[in-house]
Amino acid sequence: MRGNNLVKLNALNSLAFATGTVTLLLSSVSSVSAYTIYTNRTAWEAALATNPSYKITTDTFSNTISSAQSITLDSGIVSTNSAPPTLPNPFNNNSVSIVNSGVYDNASGTLTGASDTITWQFPATVLAFGADFSRIDELTLTGNFDGTGDQTISINPTIGGENGFLGIIGTAEFSSVIFANNTTAVDSFSIDNASFATKVPEPNAVVAFAILGGSLLLIKKAKGS
Question: What domain of life is recorded for the organism (predicted)?
Fold first, then answer.
C-alpha cells in the first residue's frame, strides 16, 4: 500500500513539474511579445548597440527630391502616398518637393493634396525604426513590430507634443511602416534623421560569397585562356 502511495506521489510531483514548466514557457512567450518604444534617440541607439547583429542607417534627407506619388529616399526607403500629392499647398509649407532642405515633408488626411496613408517600405527587413518628428498633430505610425499583426501608435501623445523623437525596437523584423491620420482633418508633418536597423550579414555568409565569387572568376579566366 505504501508503495502505491509513493507511486501516486511521484506521479503528482511529475504532473506539478510539467504544469509549472508549461506555465513558465507560456509566461516567457507572452513576456517577449511586446515591442519597445523610445522617446530619446540616445537611449534607442544605446539599446541597439547591445545587439551587434544589427547596424543603423540614417537618412538625413540631404538631397532634394521632387513631388511624386512614389519616391526613393537616399537610404533606399521607398515612400509611397496613397494618392498623388498636390504641391504646393498651404499645409505642406507651400513646398514643391517632398524632400528639401534636409527634411521630409508630407501630409496625411482627406483634403485634396494629402494622402490617407503614406507607406515607407524599407530596403530590407528591419528590427528597429526611429526618427525626429516635427509639427505632429493626429499622425499615427503603424507596423507589425512584434510579428503578431499591425500595431498603431499615436505619435503626438507618445512623444509628448508636436516635436520629438520616436523610436521602436521590435521583437520581430518588419518590412514597412505606415503613416496615417486618425481624424478626417489634415496633418502636415516633417521628419528628419530617419533611422532603421538592418541585420549585418553573417561572417560565414560573407566568406562563402567571397569564395564563390573567387571561384567564378577563376573559372572565367580558365575558360578565356
Answer: Bacteria
